[in-house]
Design a protein that fits this description.
Elements (H helix, E strand, L loop, with lengths): L6 H6 L5 H11 L5 H4 L9 H17 L7 H10 L7 H13 L5 H10 L4 H16 L6 H14 L3 H9 L9 H4 L8 H14 L2 H6 L8 H22 L1
Helix pairs in contact: 4-6, 4-8, 5-8, 8-9, 8-10, 12-14
Length: 241
């Protein structure tokens, strides 16, 4: 079953709070008390629906970061999230509401960080997909990059982890393998291999699926795995010379 089916109605039925709860509440005309608005997603909310909602809202905020909401970015959101035609209207309502409201992206990023606390690899996948959205019009602007980097900081990612995600977006012939594997050129091969095995495990699609990353967006994690494997192959060759 698609994660998009009755997303608004399904999510609002849970004990929602914080900025996400307020956003959905405003869409259905619901009134959320101040006490409830301080809370988080209820324990019964589906992890994949939460992930999907997070991507919709942050993508909407990102799409206007450079002051220009391009058609390519909107198409990228639809394509990347694999939103079926029969769900476009309701997903569009969430996207447009998040894009038009005065609140910034920071409150949402903080709530996402709280929801996925301890699941840094899931948070890295959010950053990975935001890069995909920003790249849709051919170039990641400085304002888009600054926003994504700040979201990563709110998520608790280190600069090394952020750089790894960013570098893995490049083609295998252009990426710096040491940055992808969160290593330095003077590290010994055994140490780098440990980093490689750790990253391979954390970014495996099956693990991400089990932690709530929807099947609809798992392709980007497969691309990250390809970058990780390519980086390891390159380093082995460099170290053997």
């Amino acid at each position: 079953m698609s994660i998009w089916g009755s997303l608004i109605g399904g999510m609002i039925g849970f004990s929602l709070g914080g900025p996400f709860g307020m956003l959905l509440g405003s869409l259905v005309g619901g009134k959320i008390s101040r006490a409830r608005s301080r809370g988080n997603f209820g324990t019964f909310a589906q992890p994949q629906q939460i992930f999907a909602l997070s991507l919709i809202v942050l993508s909407a905020k990102l799409s206007k970061a450079d002051g220009n909401v391009s058609r390519e970015e909107l198409v990228a959101v639809k394509d990347k999230l694999k939103i079926p035609e029969n769900e476009i209207d309701q997903v569009g309502k969430i996207f447009n509401k998040a894009k038009e409201e005065s609140a910034g992206y920071e409150p949402y990023a903080k709530q996402i960080a709280q929801i996925y606390k301890g699941n840094i690899n899931v948070l890295e996948e959010v950053i990975n997909i935001l890069f995909y959205i920003a790249e849709a019009d051919g170039d990641v602007s400085s304002s888009e990059l600054a926003m994504i980097e700040n979201i990563a900081k709110i998520f608790g990612l280190t600069q090394v982890q952020f750089n790894s995600v960013k570098e893995s977006r490049k083609g295998s012939d252009k990426l710096n393998p040491y940055i992808v594997l969160e290593s330095n050129p003077d590290d010994d091969l055994q140490s780098i291999r440990k980093k490689y095995l750790k990253l391979s495990k954390e970014n495996h699609p099956d693990l991400l699926l089990s932690k709530g990353v929807p099947q609809e967006v798992i392709d980007e994690s497969k691309n990250k795995m390809r970058a990780i494997n390519s980086a390891w192959d390159q380093i082995q060759k460099l170290k053997s010379n």
